[in-house]
Amino acid sequence: AIDTYKLFGSMYDIPEKELDKRIEEVIELFNLKDIVNIPVRKLSLGQRMICEIGLIMLHKPEILFLDEPTIGLDIFVKEKVRKAILEVHKKTNTTIFVTSHDLGDIERICKRIIIIDKGKIIKDESIEELKREYLAEKIITITYEESMEEKEIDFEVMEKFDNKVILKVD
N or C terminus of the chain with fewer C-beta within 10 Å? Predict the structure, then answer.
């Protein structure tokens, strides 16, 4: 990855001293010191993704477009990549656009969501507004090992069985 960083730094005409400083910042920001000198072909997919985000940050873009940044990653690596993206925004104030079918990415990374259907914007609102509108209630089924005694439940009971209850909750 370090060789790639140097190559891209020269492509962006970043002076050598400035490039070395930016590479150190990227290594620090994404905690890459243990992997930056390993050949890229030997890195895991998640390590490569984080190195690529670091690469993007070398030329200090004002706007960053990420398309499916966590596709194909396991849940632990997804969270690591999401944290890296949030760190970029927090430390550099870079505007970040994320396109994703993974609502976990959107919910974790973004403050605002724009939903496009057949080229038309059908929603443009905050994540919180979208949650209030579409995730107003959940249906939860609780199954007990043994028969449930008659107890008062503070939720709307949709169905009740001997050892199971189906609730509607906000």
Answer: C
